[in-house]
Structure formats: C-alpha cells, structure tokens
Amino acid sequence: MNIWKKIFKSKAGAVSLVTLSVLYLGIIFAAFFAPYNYDQDDVLNSYSPPTKIHLFNFSAKQFTPFVYGKKCVVNKYYQRIYSEDKSKIYPVKFFTKGFKYKLFGIWNCNRHLFGTDEGKIYLLGADLRGRDLFSRILYGGRISLSIVVVAGLISFSIGLLVGGISGYFGGKIDNFTMRVCEIIMMIPSFYLLLVLRSSFPVNWGSAQVYFMVVIILSLIGWASLARTIRGMALSLRENDFVYAAKSAGLGNFKIIIKHILPHTLSYSLVALVLSIPSYILAEAALSLIGLGIQEPQASWGNLLSSALGIVNIRLYPWILIPGIFIIITGMCFYILGDTLRDIFDPKRKIL
User: Fold this and answer.
1) Longest dimension (CA), the chain
2) What backbone phi and psi angles, to 5 degrees, belong to 34?
3) Model pTM?
4) Does 82 share its domain with 178?
5) Is 211 part of any domain?
6) Is 56 in the same domain as 149?
7) What pLDDT does 113 receive?
8) How far apart are the C-alpha atoms of 121 and 35, rounded to whole Å?
9) Which of 319, 25, 345, 301 lies closest to 140 in space, CA to CA?
C-alpha cells in the first residue's frame, strides 16, 4: 500500500490533502477563477458586502443566475449602506471575457470562470478601495502559499545538511554548529523576523520583497530541524553500512548525502509539513504590520491590515475572511503532518 492510499485511509488526512489541493489549484489558476484583477479598484463600491447571487427570477421567467444592481447611501456615521436595486438585473455568465492575463506566463487569455457584462459580483465582499476580496485572496494565496513552500524547502535543505554534517563529523564542527543553532532558537522568532527585516531597505519592489521574505523565513526555521537530524546522524554513523561505504572509498560528504540523510527523510518530511503553518503565520505577521508584501500586491497577511481596527471589523466583518483562509490552511498542514507521522511511525499500525 503506497503512501497516498494510507493518507486516504485517514478521513482527517484525506480531507486536509483534498482541501490543500483545492487551494493550490485555485492559486495556480487564480487569474481564471478571479472575476477581477487583484489591483482593479472601484471606490464607488468601497466596502461593498458580499453579493447575493439569485438563481431564479419567476416574475421575469428567468431561470439563470443573476445579480441585482446596487444602491448606496451614507448614514450619519459615514457608513456606506448598500441595498439591491431590483430595477437592474445582470445575468451571471460563465467562461466570460474579462481582463487579460497570461496562462502559465505563456498564453494570452481573457476568459474567466464567471462574471457579468455590467454590474459587480463580490463573492466575499470588497475592501476599502472597492477591490474584489475573492480575487485578491486568490492572488494573495499565490504569494503566501508559494513563499512558505519555497522558504520551507530551503530551510529543510539547510537543516538536513547542517544536522548531517554536525552529527557525522562531531567534535569542534558539532560544537560550533550546535551553538549557532541554540543562539537562533533562543531568540523569539517574531523579534528575529523584525531584526532581519530591518536589515533590508524598506523601499524595495514587490519581487525584491518576495525574495527577501523567503530568505528571512529560511534563516529562522532550520535550527530546530538541524538539532534533531544531528542526533539521528550521531547514531547512524555507527552503522555497518557507513563503515562499508568508508571501506569502499566513498568521501565523507557522499556518505552523508547518500547514506546518512536518506535514513532521516521520513522524520524530516513530517517536520517540514508541520513547520509550514509557522511560516504562513510569520509571512502574515510581516505583511500585516507593513514589513512584508506591500500594496497593491496582495498577500493574505496584508489583506488583514484593514481588520486592525475594531470599528472596521464590526461594520465590515467580511474583511476577516483572509484570516479564515490562513487558519484553514494551517490546520490542514498540521493534520496532514500528524497523519504522515502516524504512517511513518513503525509502532503505529492504525494506517
């Protein structure tokens, strides 16, 4: 039975894997699923609530999805109050034309899953500048979920290599690398994030900030994994297959790469999956306080920046929806990591 079948034997693991697959599928084809571009604003629809999609209009004998137009009034507290204008009906069309984009960065496309010729569809509401929150969540997922995966893989690779070298060679190399790991682990991760971020210019563009956040997250996440791998390498280096490799004339680094580290991959894979939620929260925290991904580029962290005020949350509760995506994604990675741990644990025969 392969690992995929074992995952699907666990209901929680299967649901988590399917949910993550749907999320990543959504961000890969974000431009197709999103009815509007991430920076397409409309101040006349500032903080527009989620649009109600009506399936049938019996009075007009219309049996296709549609939305009504909107009317807006501003009350004495300067809150925008929206209501449906039933004199205006806009059919919801599928595979409709919209803004242009490049599919996989190659093919020019302008087809989108749904949209209207006139009017606006805000599935999850709009933000302060009237930008579609659903579209921005899809585009923001591209940033947030790709950053954590790339940073996690880099941190995973550094932790494996440093831990393997430290445990295999021992002595002064082991003492030095472990002291470095302990120093990194002693500093609270959030404050370390701020210190590392302050060492970079604040006026960088989106691409530079993206790579900067990847580097920062990679630098803070490898130490604990390296310590664990080091302990495993200390015991593995005394095994017969290591002595056999030495007798065959293999160099030390080839022994580490080909014989030591492969025996730690089952644990390392679980550790990688379980660490991803912390990267998601770290990226969100940086972007939330304005030190990560900057406007108008969207990430799940900076989408929550408008939810810092309790008044905004009370009046426009849909601005908290990006936080729900962060929670769901983090929980799915944790559950998937626990499922993988049960699969790789030889003492567990449940899965």
Assistant:
1) 87
2) -80, 125
3) 0.86
4) no
5) yes
6) no
7) 92
8) 8
9) 301
